[in-house]
Amino acid sequence: MAGLKKAILRTGFEALYFSGSHVWLRPFVAGIGAILTLHHVRPPRREAFQPNRLLEVTPTFLEAVIVRLRRAGIDLVNLDEMHRRLTAPQRSRRFACLTFDDGYRDNLEYAYPILKKHGAPFALYIPTSFPDRLGELWWVALEAVIARNDRIGLVVEGEDRNFDCRTASEKREVYEAIYWWARRLPSEEDLRNVVRDLATRYQVDIAAFCRELCMDWNEIEELSRDPLATIGAHTVNHVRLTKVAEKAARAEMRQSAAVIESAIGKWPQHLSYPVGDATSAGPREFAIARELGFKTAVTTRPGVLFPEHRDHLTALPRISLNGEYQQLRYVEVLLSGAATAILNKFRRVDAA
Ligand SMILES: [Zn+2]
Known about the structure:
Layout: H1 2-19, H2 21-24, H3 26-29, E1 33-38, E2 40-41, E3 56-57, H4 59-71, E4 75-76, H5 79-87, E5 95-101, H6 105-117, E6 122-126, H7 138-147, E7 151-156, E8 159-164, H8 168-183, H9 188-201, H10 206-213, H11 217-224, E9 229-233, H12 246-264, E10 270-272, H13 283-291, E11 296-302, E12 316-320, H14 328-336, H15 338-343
Parallel strand pairs: 1-5, 1-12, 2-3, 4-5, 5-6, 6-9, 10-11, 11-12
Antiparallel strand pairs: 7-8
Helix pairs in contact: 1-14, 4-6, 7-8, 7-9, 12-13
Bound molecules: zinc ion.
Zinc ion (ZN) binds at residues 101-102, 234, 238, 274.
């Protein structure tokens, strides 16, 4: 599935770029700004099996994007300024926000020096269980289970199934199959139980990934003192909010803000919904975020910002800097709004 989608995406990007369509579509699709989504920023790794590679870009690519944005006359702004420009009636220059989800330590090690050098504002959305060292990076644990074994057993819909995963391509297939099957289970707890069970049986220590990959509170607090930084909420347990009861969803959002405030002394004004696609955050979550007083909340629904988004400040789209497409011409097509306009069938706001 992902392979096919990838091929279409890549062909689509190339087609838009080389036909120049992203330029002539610009008056219709350009929007007023964009929020970019990043996760890991680190040097490329050699392994053939990297199912989560879409979640990382290299420091070189990040720097190239910053330079290109500035050269294109796009202002890099923080989330408060983004909010101001969306809600203020006067026209301003096009803008972009750099946002990093999950609070990975590589953000501090590799991204921060670049951001600092270019004076680029950025936001970090922190799931508080990660610096509390109680978080489950279940997608990383699933990757480790498959990477370290040639065959794994799993009960799928009451049936014992075995998956051969000897080669990198078999591992990729098995990862995709289990990942998407688990994502479609009814509740967040169902998905967690699948990965917890695999991790226990194949001796993968889920808690270790948190310690290894994520910043601790001291590091986050230190970063938060830089005026370039905005610390935003990303729930406590990084749950897909649509997959838990309303009370739990509200508690996840509210509690994460309270924990961040006690750690850095500032109540976070901005939120990012974990996973953030239409199956993970919807109208119920957008309403709760608004009630809780967040100024903005971001999804991972693809799109650029239009003036109409001022009425949907807790359902903002983003443009993902995907590690599979680390080419500036893809970013150019994405920021033109052309690719996402086609994806969204030229509908500007997607908040349903
Ligand atoms: Zn996240």
